[in-house]
Every structure is written in C-alpha cells, then in structure tokens.
Amino acid sequence: MKLSLANVLLKPLLILFFATLIFTSCKNARHTAAPDLDAKLDKIFASVPDFSGVLLVAEKGKPVYHKAFGYKSFLTKEPMETTTIFELASVSKQFTAMTIMQMKEAGKLSFDDPVGRYIPGLPYTGITIRHLLTHTSGLPDYQQVMDEHWDKNKVAGNADNIAYLIQYHPAKHFEPGTKYEYSNTGFMLLASITEKVSGEDFIEFCRKRFFVPLKMTSTDIRTLDQKKKLKNLALGHIYVKDKQRYVPADSFPQFNYAIWLGNRKGPGRVSSTSADLLKWDRILYSNTLIKAETLQEAFTPAHLNNGSISNYGFGWKIKETKRGKVVWHDGDNPGYATEFIRYIDTDKTIILLCNNAHAKMPEILKSVEALVEEE
C-alpha cells in the first residue's frame, strides 16, 4: 500500500488541528462536577485518607472532576497536584499497539505476518504480530530469563532481551492462538518490530507521531536519569507494616528490575499526566491517527483457535457495561497503580493514577465507575 503525497501532508495537519482543539477545550474546561457527583466522589476519597494520586473524570472531553490527593513524595510531604507526572506502567501498551497499527496502514507490515520475519533468529515458530498484540502468543517471560542470566550491573534494552531469549530459549507456554496469557514479551517484540519497519528509534517514533503533535507536553518515555531530574514526578511508594508508613518502592531490592531493565521498550515506561491522557483520549475519537476500521479492530476481542473470545484487543482490554462498550487498561509498577477507562459509546472517561499502590485501589475504582455509570 502506497500513501499519496496529499495523504502524507494532510495527516500531520489534521493531527495538529485536532490537538489544538483538544488543548483549547481542556484549558477552558471546568474542573468540578455537578455538586452531587462532586460530593459523592469527594466522599469516596475521604474514606481512604491515605490514598495518594489523581482522579480525572470527563464527559465528552470536558473534565467534570479533576482533583489530587496525597503526596508526590511521602518523605518530603510535597503535596500532589493534578499536573503531576506518573509512571503509566502497562497503560503504555496502547501506544505500542498504535505504532504497529500505523505501520500496518503505511503498508509496512500485516497483522498476520510471522514475527520471525522481523526478529531474525527468534526460536519460536507460528507466532504472528496479531498474537503479540492480543497476548495469545504463548511466549515465555523475557524478564524471568534476564533475571536468571543478566549481569544486573548493566542496563538491558530490547536487543539484549531478544538475544537472551534466543540464547537460552525457554519453552513456549502454549501453542499460539490457543490461550490468552498476558505477555510483556510480546509488547517488547512489537516495539522492536516498529523500529525494524520504520527505521526509527521507538521512543523517537512515539515522540514524533504522538507526544509532540498532540501537545502531550508532560508525556515521554524517559530514562531513569531523566526521571530523576523531573520536579513534578510522583514517586512510587509501598506501605511497610512494620514501620507503619509508606516508603519509596525503589528501596526494595526485589523491585530493582526497573533499573537493570531500564532501557526496555514496548511493555511500559511511558510517564504522563491525567490531562495528557485526556488529550490522547480525545484524538482517538477523531480518526486522524489511524482509520476508524483499524481502531475498531483494536477494540474487538481476539478470537482463539477454538472459537472462544478473550477480553483483549490490540493494547486494550474490553468489556460491556450497562453504558455500552468500555475499552480500558490498567498498569502496575512498583508503588504505582494506574487506570485508563473509556466509555466509548457514551464518551465518558476515567483516569485514576496512584503512587502508593493503595490496597483499596480496586474498591475505589469500583465506586468511581458505579457513579460515572449512573450519570
């Protein structure tokens, strides 16, 4: 498939146009809900006073509730702000999936291409790009391989992860397409495939195609050193019962994989704000990044070989509610818990970002969802 010069020139202009509209609407939007909803949401967080994070609820792109709770750092007691940057963890996967969908529309690949065409030497046959996108590949966990064999005084990237999968060749968990099993390995490979077919570094690809044109000014795929320099980053925390307080998650040796796998691309590593995620939410309604039919495929549950369906499309989890179809994703990094929920039939959005991995996060989210679905 070849793109005409007109299409090549028009798409960036369309993206810039919609990004400007999104930025303006977000800037001018009210940040409080109707009194009843506002009071009910406030009551939820009043019941968990040690919760730390940000909640944004939007209707048709307009923030109706946007508040911050807790601290960026429990050591310094610096108050959380609605503009604070969080690690998104696996919420990042939707950006990785979007890079693949754009490359498909550019004629650089097909969803049913064998992965081995783009990752030479990978010792797993019968796996397609579609299997990677939908977590149905059966691939083993690259992180476990690296944990067992990698020199943790070094920082590993995708090339290292792939080399170790080839060298140590752990067995597949199942035959491709027969089961659903969440796989960070699959999304690590997807980022490398994007690099292969585009000829661009994955991080630069995301910056050039998404973060910069959409004016997601607080969003990036950052190194550890870059994150240390951020003044508005929410640090991840974990509650230590013996100390009866929250401590930085990076003080625990078992969580230091974020350091020695610090250059991985694809499964996570995007850091962002609630407002920037709302900009991303809005552009997904515009069909300027990809065609509507391609995005619809991303929002369609995968079919397994036996005819059953999973709850996952391309970088998105999918569920049906009384308010129609919902596409969503959660993320979990040491000290962080993130939720990005889009009611695409009624155009409502929930963005909940937490930096103290609160034990009541599922309960909080359930209550917020119930209120939003009532409106």
TrEMBL record:
Keyword Protease carried by entry: no
Signal peptide limits: none
Top-level taxonomic group: Bacteria
Annotated compartments: Membrane
Keywords in alphabetical order: Membrane
GO (cellular component) term, any one: membrane
Keyword Amino-acid biosynthesis: no
Pfam families: Beta-lactamase
Domain Beta-lactamase-related: 42-359
Protein name (database record): Beta-lactamase family protein
